[in-house]
Amino acid sequence: MNTAIVASLLLLLLGFAYQLGWSRSRGLAAAVGRIHSRPAYHGSLVAFWALVPALLILGLWTAFGDTATRAYILAQLPPEIATLPTGDLNAAIRRIRQIESGFGVVGDTQAYENVAAQALREFRTLTFAFVVAAAAGTGAVGLYLAQRRISTRLRARNEVERIVRVLLIGCSVVAILTTVGIVASLLMEALRFFTFVSPIDFFFGTVWNPGFSSVGAGATGEYGLLPLLWGTLMVAAIAILVALPIGLMTAIYLTQYATPRMRGIVKPIIELLAGIPTIVYGFFALVTVGPFLAGAGTAIGLDIRATSALTAGVVMGVMIIPFISSLSDDVIRQVPLAMRDGSLGLGATQSETIRRVVIPAALPGIVGAFLLAVSRAIGETMIVVLAAGNSPFLRLNPGEPVSTVTVTIVNQLTGDMDFASPQSLVAFALGLTLFVMTLILNVAALFIVRRYREQYD
Amino acid sequence: MNTETKQEATAMHMPAEKIVPQSDLYTRETTTVRTPDENPGPVRVSARDVSVFYGQKQALFDVSIDVPEKSVTAFIGPSGCGKSTFLRTLNRMNDTIEGCRMTGKITLDGADIYDPSLDPVELRARVGMVFQKPNPFPKSIYENVAYGPRIHGLSRSRSELDSIVESSLQKAGLWSEVKDRLNEGGTSLSGGQQQRLCIARAIAVSPEVILMDEPCSALDPIATARIEELIDELKQNYTIVIVTHSMQQAARVSQRTAFFHLGNLVEEGPTDLIFTSPVEKRTQDYITGRFG
Amino acid sequence: MAHPFTPQLDPAADGSAERLKRIRASLGKRHAQERRFRAYGIAAIAAALGFVAILFSMILYQGLPAFTQANLTLDVNFDPEIVKVADRPVQAPDQSVADYRRAVLDWERKVTMVNWNRVLEKAITAAAPGVDIDSRAALSIVETSERFRLRDMFVADPGLLGKTVKVTMLASANADNWLKGNIDRSLPDAQQQLSAPARALADKFMDGGQMRFAFAWHIFTNGDSRSAPASAGLAGAFVGSLYMMLVVIVLAVPIGVMSAVYLEEFAPKNKFTDFIEVNINNLAAVPSIVFGLLGAAVFINYFRLPLSAPLVGGLVLTLMTLPTIIIATRSALRAVPPSLRQAALGVGASKTQTVFHHVLPVTYPGILTATIIGVAQALGETAPLLLIGMNAFVAQIPGTPLDPSSALPVQIYLWQGNENRNFFEARTSAAIIVLLGLMLMLNAIAIYLRARLERRK
Q: Pick from A22, A24, A244, C226: CA 20 to 30 A from residue A340's CA?
């Protein structure tokens, strides 16, 4: 309701300011003849200056309004309530807010609560009116000042363009802020974790047994990263063993041998694999591939569990095939045809040309693709959550269940856990490890691929 | 994604735009004029009524020509005239182009090179090719030259391979320049050196015929002069066919010249005669610079 | 093989015959190698295509049966002997609205207290005369939610009292399993989910035509349910996903496009923009679960946004999708020929005008594709959502983006983990079919719009 009022007010202000700027500059143009900028720019500029102060006021209220309201409620409370410990005080304030809003009140209300709620209701109405009035007022002032500036010489277009430019830069910064946010939050929470567990025990520990936070606060359990890291690497290695030969050979065949028609049919079908959500792969692994591998293992006398590093790795490999094939496809097609012709012209067969000339020429690009694929395999979550068996032990046999870094992050952060316990915080230390590993792989891949592109540009 | 598919058609199998005819106005125009030649050598490569099609388009019309042994034959003509296309039929490089079809007959030492029982791999070992742009492989200088002998199994031992590499580089006049850095990448050489490396690479297989497709078009005048000298030396041992857009080059290096125009072989004969007293008017117009 | 070449007799060609002999000696082997290499390529493609085929056929095979479910149509008699409640209160003239409402609520509470199971049981035994079965077993073939259906029918129309109506009810998940043969029918009693009499009853109804399979519309209209698995539906998860997609489209598309425009058209080429470029490319390859950690630490723990809310999920997915949209938009911008920009600048348009009036419109098809790819990617993402509490069981369909909710892929995750495996395996596959169907539809829309946009040019 209130949001709707504010939004419609803002829209009204916007429309009015634009219209005013537009018609004033237009009138000026009609009277004088020539003005610097077209009316649309004057309108936009006026609208901008009318809107910014109003938005600023509203923004401030959104940010600090809650604190102010809380302080007001606090002031209304009798001293014996106001001095309660934080937890109880919060409960009391929540109750008053509930009474005020009329929703979710449980039990009978007390006199002081009703008084406070009544005062709060008045406070709310008053402040709302005040904030809206302030926003409208400053908006009007901005509008007035801005429309006064309209003249034949005002470079409204340049100013609007400068505003647009700032807006564009602001949008570009979001991506940086995301990275900063990731690094900062991972680092901070990981550091909090390291106040419970020493980094040495974490990075070099060979036992993963975090226990449960409900058992008691403090560092109960062991947080050795190595079993998880080992599981992660094993699953990723199996995935790459499946995906690299298939993906690479597919790319080679499609670029070097296939007719355009065949390529046009096969390529989209393989890329279909890339669009399938990973949870679907996970389910596929759990329900189809796992039992199949276990059965196949039994048939040849091997003990393979249905949920194991092998199951997760194989299915993850399938997931990565299109990734490797389309990246390799791109780099192989960048190899100059002159090089291929040179080899064929010497009497090399097509496969000799591919193996001895095309692939070595495309190698940096393929290595880049490989690194990105490894990064993707390491960071993949849902397949391993469902199909790897979640068993954090150092085991060599890929037919046994394992656990990975990503699985453990999910396990530690889902369920009802105290966010401040080491059991939860360890997820961020694991996340940091994961982030750093993938960062190194990604950046290395980026540089290799970029160097490679420059070579043939 | 869209740009990718658009590029696909051209990038996939078309080696260079120049060999695809730009217009479909090409028609069979005239029978080839043969300038009399008092002293022709024994014929090595012989083409009879060769036509080439790219899909629906005909790029070459009934070309018949004889290439004599141990001499340089130059193909000249304005761009898009079919000279490169014809050159590529001589070692079946056109086979690698999707939708390219050829009729007529080409023989090497009297044997049909388009005979289905013939292996194009073997043919290309006998008819080598040097391309317009120097295209060394991303390998060392040594490996570039050793590539052909290795794939064809020409050497029985490392020392035999070494000597093939050395003699090839020597024949290509590159040995003295690179003998101390055989393990450096082939791409580290200058453009002219790269082209001579490509020639050495072709020689290493000891082909009987070497096809050169505008080998100097990407080089500066000094490098060009060096290659021309080399061609002159090579003709002692090899039969050379060279495509060139430069009439001066044809005049300098070749013994016989063939003039192509709009997919037709217009005139062919001893170089000096072609340049001094051509029979065909179009040849005359071309060598005097009326068009081209 | 016949060799059309005559051996070289010319003495000048030294060693030529020997050379040819050597070449011919290895030809067979080389061609065999070539054939082998091609076979590898074809095998790789066949493997990749095979995986696609197996994956889709397995999911269709498992999921399609779940779209039909056993329904039981019975004559239900609202027997006054069992439904012993007073008439629905009528508002007296002197009664206040609040009092009246209280009276109605009171009445409804009494209606709920009625032994609806008894009503149901009588309907079942009436339909199967002569069958001696205890009430537990009889009721076990009907889904537990159906007695509330009877209650709701009665509340809506108290006139039903004493009447007999035909009601079509969902069979229980166990009965559905039995009738579909999901559990081997020859297994002994101990391994069956239904008791022997209940199985016999279900079969009898099947033969008698009271029980039949019908399309399970409720999968699309119901929320999730644990107590009544047969009635569990996707509507809640679907709405949750829809909210998240809206957030992604509203935030990621404008920010991503603006950011791409700045980086590609305005930003100076220097170390800093280079850094942004690497940063964006890296972000695109950061594991999705890291974004989940970011969401947990920043949105949930720091900003105290509600757990399980689609708004938070949408924010996390926005950050995750942003790099995809930026990269794709940039490459679309890069594909615009410079001549277009020069033409616009040449007639006196400013840089900003050039970009927004001339360059950007040309890239709409590209941006559209990028948007759809990004949205599809976000739609299928599971792991980060688990970390912000979207894996909580939510039975209601969320009314606003701040209500707790699930999402389609998370629902798949939850269902695959349900204890009633026999039933939920099919249900999970059905959910996957719905998810993949949605993605396919998104892509189809993209292709269609793209074709239209490009034709207009």
A: A244
Query: Which residues of chain B are modeled with pLDDT < 50?
Result: 1-23
- Chain A contacts of C36, Cβ < 8 Å? 351
Contact list in C for residue B237 (CB cut-off 8 A) is: 12
For residue range A137-165, what is the model confidence (pLDDT) as tens digits? 888 888 888 888 877 777 878 888 888 88
pLDDT confidence of residue A1:
45
Asked if C351 lies within 8 A of A287 by C-beta distance, the reply is: no
Interface probe for C, chosen from B113, B122, B163 (most Cβ of C below 10 Å), is B122
Chain C residues near residue B126 by CB distance under 8 angstroms: 5, 20
- Helices (H), ranges, A285-357: 290-299, 309-334, 337-345, 350-353
What single DSSP character describes residue C142?
Answer: B
**Intra-chain end-to-end CA distance of chain C, in Å:** 58
**What count of Cα atoms within 13 Å lies in the side-chain half-sphere of residue A218?**
2
For residue A343, list chain B residues with Cβ-Cβ distance below 8 A.
137, 147
> Which range among A232-241, B26-35, C208-217 shows the weakest confidence by mean pLDDT?
B26-35
Contact between A345 and B131 using a beta-carbon 8 Å cutoff: yes
CB contact under 8 A, A168 and C259: yes
The mean pLDDT of A222-248, rounded to a whole number, is 94
pTM over 0.90: no
Distance CA A348, CA A341 (A): 10
User: Beta strand B127-130 with B43-54: parallel, antiparallel or unpaired?
Assistant: unpaired
DSSP helix/strand/coil, C171: strand
Residue pair A427/A405 in contact (Cβ under 8 Å)? The answer is no
User: What is the average pLDDT score of chain A?
Assistant: 86
What does DSSP assign to residue C167? Answer: E
The reported pLDDT for the residue numbered B15 is: 41
Return residues 320-349 of A near B (CB < 8 Å).
333, 336-339, 341-349
Q: How many CB pairs under 8 A join A and B?
A: 84
Q: Please indicate whether, in this complex, the C-beta atoms of A345 and B133 are within 8 angstroms of each other.
A: no
What's the pLDDT score for residue B31?
Answer: 55
Q: What is the mean pLDDT of residues C92-109?
A: 83
Q: Tell me the DSSP string of chain B.
A: -HHHHHHHHHHHH---GGGS-S-S------PPEE---S----EEEEEEEEEEEETTEEEEEEEEEEEESSSEEEEE-STTSSHHHHHHHTTTGGGGSTTEEEEEEEEETTEETT-TTS-HHHHHHHEEEE-SS----SSBHHHHHHHHHHHHT--SSHHHHHHHHHHHHHHTT-HHHHTT-TTSBGGGS-HHHHHHHHHHHHHTT--SEEEEESTTTTS-HHHHHHHHHHHHHHTTT-EEEEE-S-HHHHHHH-SEEEEEETTEEEEEEEHHHHHHS-SSHHHHHHHTTS--
Chain A residues with CB under 8 Å of C37 CB are 350-351, 354-355
With contacts defined as CB-CB under 8 Å, which chain C residues touch B153?
22-23, 25-26
User: What is the per-residue pLDDT across B89-138, written as a single tens digit (0 to 9) for each?
Assistant: 998 988 888 888 889 999 998 889 998 888 889 999 999 999 988 999 98
Best residue of A235, A266, A276, A454 to probe chain C, by most C CBs closer than 10 Å: A276
Give the whole-angstrom CA distance, residue C261 versus residue A168.
7
Say if residues B21 and B66 touch (Cβ distance below 8 Å).
no
Query: Inter-chain contact A186–C297, Cβ cutoff 8 Å?
Result: yes
The beta-carbon neighbor of C326 closest among A169, A175, A321 is: A175
Query: What are the pLDDT digits (tens) for C7-22?
Result: 334 434 456 778 888 8
Burial A86-102 (b: 16+ CB within 10 A, else e): eeebeebbebbbbbbee
Q: Which helix (H) or strand (E) holds A250?
A: helix A226-252
Closest residue on chain B to C1 (Cα) = B117
